[in-house]
């Protein structure tokens, strides 16, 4: 059986990807921090990890590779919403037909819930731009996109291309 290819965007120290690596997944990743790359490389010597700024897209070495899963945890909030959308559109092209993008981050189903959390928390980092799912969903009407709440301020966004059959 072919190995499952996973690309991790902003892998950090590889907390998440190391588990997949140990389970035999073929791991690719990008992170712009050299320190993070060194730590992750130590844990996952065969992973193809690249030091690269994802606000510029993907490095050349990854441009022609198709992935089963593209994952990202607690990293996408560094992009402005318009840049997230541009990036997600780019990533979609790198998925196999039945591939999936999975983003776990501080995220809210609606803007009202985000505003509620902002008030409750009392402190907010305005430099971080959190996903509001029902706004994102409108941008991707042709995709199978879902949101799972995991806490009062975090969620998982899963996005699949509809199979060609339904287009
Ligand atoms: C909060 S950490 C999360 C790390 C990991 N995904 C996890 O869940 O443990 C965010 C990571 O994204 C990386 N990062 C942030 N902005 C980036 C960018 N524009 N390009 C590449 N990496 C970036 C940081 O270096 C950091 O390793």
UniProtKB/TrEMBL annotation:
Domain Methyltransferase: 6-99
Highest taxon, organism lineage: Bacteria
Classification via SUPFAM superfamilies: S-adenosyl-L-methionine-dependent methyltransferases
Keyword line: Methyltransferase, Transferase
Keyword Cell membrane: no
Pfam families noted in UniProt: Methyltransf_25 (PF13649)
Molecular function per GO: methyltransferase activity
InterPro entries the UniProt entry points to: Methyltransf_25, SAM-dependent_MTases_sf
GO biological-process terms attached to the record: methylation
PANTHER family noted in UniProt: TRANS-ACONITATE 2-METHYLTRANSFERASE-RELATED (PTHR43861)
Protein name as annotated: Putative AdoMet-dependent methyltransferase
Organism: Sporanaerobacter acetigenes DSM 13106
Native organism taxonomy: Bacteria, Bacillati, Bacillota, Tissierellia, Tissierellales
């Amino acid at each position: 059986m072919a190995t499952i290819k996973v690309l991790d965007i902003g892998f950090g120290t590889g907390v998440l990807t190391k588990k997949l690596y140990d389970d035999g997944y073929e791991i690719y990743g990008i992170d712009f921090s050299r320190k993070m790359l060194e730590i992750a490389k130590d844990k996952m010597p065969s992973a193809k990890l690249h030091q690269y700024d994802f606000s510029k897209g993907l490095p050349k070495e990854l441009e022609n590779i198709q992935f089963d899963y593209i994952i990202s945890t607690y990293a996408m909030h560094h992009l402005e919403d318009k840049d997230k959308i541009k990036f997600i559109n780019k990533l979609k092209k790198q998925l196999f037909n039945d591939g999936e993008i999975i983003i776990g981050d501080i995220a809210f189903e609606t803007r009202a819930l985000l505003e509620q959390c902002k008030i409750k928390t009392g402190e907010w980092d305005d430099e971080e731009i959190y996903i509001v799912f029902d706004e994102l969903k409108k941008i991707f009407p042709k995709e199978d996109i879902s949101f799972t709440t995991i806490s009062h301020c975090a969620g998982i966004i899963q996005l699949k291309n509809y199979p060609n059959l339904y287009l």
